[in-house]
Design goal:
The RecF protein is involved in DNA metabolism; it is required for DNA replication and normal SOS inducibility. RecF binds preferentially to single-stranded, linear DNA. It also seems to bind ATP. This protein has helices at residues 36-48, 57-60, 107-113, 125-128, 131-145, 149-169, 172-212, 232-238, 240-246, 267-270, 273-295, 306-309, 312-323; strands at 2-11, 14-19, 25-29, 67-75, 82-90, 95-99, 102-103, 116-119, 219-223, 257-262, 265-266, 300-303, 328-333, 348-354, 357-360. It has 361 residues and is α/β, with parallel strands linked by helices. Bound molecules: adenosine-5'-triphosphate.
């Protein structure tokens, strides 16, 4: 997949942008506050329906404006010709998604068309932060490679909500059996898909780590979110009292985790911040490689502030490995010196970002 043309209106300090990116490597150069990350953030909206810097849509709409718009023309492997994709978000919370002029009901309709990945200074939180971030990492891959995964997750979330409502109403003992059974069926399916996915992803991660973090060999393990000696239905039954005490369902795939251990110690306890970044780079690269191999599609990869994130040799290796997957890259840096090695690449464009204006070199 390649973004062939990107138009952005009234998004942070980007008033009216219209660029035609290169199909492989795009460098966005500019000083602090010029609008580089905002450009990535606007593209990110198409692949996730949200920002990676703010959870309030209103904050990214340009001051004094009612809405922002991101429009792009996409060359995709899933059909011939260019796909026209538009996303508009209004200050009152409404949004409008259009694919080839047709309004779409769900953001997932858009997300499925645009596999977008992101590496920013905050990505390292996937390693050091809560299990929810690691589940999101896994779910990105599953959503894009396993067609049934979205519906399954939505079903699970719905039933989970029902069970939690029963807990709060004090009705779990009376009606719990029925909901436990449905929740367990969906939950076990999610668990199976995740286990297969982790097993498939692991060789890619380990191969990348042998370069990015050769001094360590982390063990990777997926934890289902309940006692592995029990079925989920049994675990739900056994957790009844605890769930009633705390007011929510304490076992299930919504409590799963992907753990990285080095010499039996949690990786986040042992790795420096720079090393954790390497681990994160290896993980994201693995997602792109696995996605490419299983779906024969490349993704759009956004790399924000690459200079601050990785040493020069790792920066180069990361970008090279991503380009080997046929991903289209958008890389921001304050100055060209941070990524001088890109002079060797041919299919690239350099864009200068200054006070919200973007000019191709
Ligand atoms: N809603 C908004 N409306 C207008 N301008 C905004 C809005 N939100 C942020 N800005 C401005 O837009 C600019 C966004 O800069 P951005 O974060 O994209 O910079 P950057 O080039 O990535 O810088 P850095 O290298 O410091 O990360 C900033 O100058 C910020 O003050």
């Amino acid at each position: 997949m390649k973004l062939d043309r990107i138009q952005i209106r009234q998004f942070r300090n980007l008033t009216d942008i219209d660029i035609r990116p290169a199909s492989r490597l795009n460098l966005l150069l500019g000083s602090n506050g010029s609008g580089k990350s905002s450009l990535l953030e606007a593209i990110h909206y198409l692949g996730f329906g949200r920002s990676f810097r703010s959870n309030k849509h209103q904050h990214v709409i340009q001051h004094e404006c009612d809405a922002f718009t991101v429009f792009c023309q996409v060359a995709t492997e899933i059909r011939s010709g260019l796909l026209n994709i538009g996303y508009q978000r209004f200050r009152n919370g409404d949004s409008l998604i259009k694919v080839d002029g047709e309004p779409q009901k769900r953001i997932s309709d858009l997300v499925r068309l645009l596999p977008i990945q992101l590496f920013t200074p905050a990505s390292v939180e996937v390693i050091s932060g809560s299990p929810g971030l690691r589940r999101k990492f896994l779910d990105w891959g599953l959503f894009h490679v396993e067609p049934s995964y979205l519906e399954l997750s939505l079903r699970y979330q719905q039933v989970l909500k029902q069970r939690n409502a029963l807990i709060r109403q004090g009705n779990l003992s009376r009606e719990g059996h029925y909901w436990n059974e449905i929740l367990a069926t969906a939950g076990e399916q999610i668990d199976r898909l995740r286990k297969v996915f982790v097993e498939a992803l692991e060789p890619y991660i380990l191969r990348n780590l042998s370069y990015f973090l050769p001094e360590f060999c982390p063990e990777i393990s997926y934890h289902s979110g309940w006692d592995s000696s029990l079925t989920l239905e049994q675990a739900l039954h056994e957790s009844k009292q605890k769930d009633q005490k705390y007011g929510f369902t304490s076992v299930g795939p919504h409590k799963a985790d992907l753990r990285f251990r080095i010499k039996s110690v949690a990786a986040q306890e042992l790795l420096s911040r720079g090393q954790a970044r390497m681990l994160m780079a290896a993980l994201l690269l693995a997602q792109s490689q696995h996605f490419q191999d299983t779906r024969s599609r490349g993704c759009v990869f956004l790399l924000d502030d690459i200079g601050a994130e990785l040493d020069e040799d790792k920066r180069q290796a990361f970008i090279e490995a991503l380009l080997n997957t046929s991903a289209q890259l958008f890389v921001t840096a304050i100055e060209k010196g941070q990524i001088d090695f890109v002079d060797n690449y041919t299919d690239k464009k350099v864009f200068h970002v200054e006070h919200g204006q973007v000019k191709e070199e």
